[in-house]
Amino acid sequence: MDYQNIIAAPFGSIKSEIIHPIDPIHRLIAFDKSSSRFMDDFLKMPYYVKSYYTDSNGKVFPIFLSDKSELKNTGKGSNPFFENANSRYFVVKANGIPIGRALAFHDRLYDSEENPFRERYYGKGVKTGWIGFFECVHL
Fold it and tell me: Residue 126 belongs to what domain range?
């Protein structure tokens, strides 16, 4: 499987996770549901980035709880944004440690609204997607 297949797979079509080896050390993991076994890796990844530490070397844990509630896309208490949006989570792990993450999403409601700017500069019927929660360690 190549990266194009991982990225181009339709949202919601990943029945479980896709784990793709990049090299002997690194793995790219893609999943659609916040109930995935890799969601903890997605949420905890920022704690491996030095800039998330405070001056006293304590970790800033409220970020974890905020991200967890914002990204819940299944079950009771899920974020209403995901009722009209599709998402794909990506985690890169090196030797089992998460070293990068990103969230790609498509908001169907946004694309269904009239948007003169989008139509003028990108054309009628062009879909819009976003990438968020992008973080990685500095190697």
Answer: 3-136
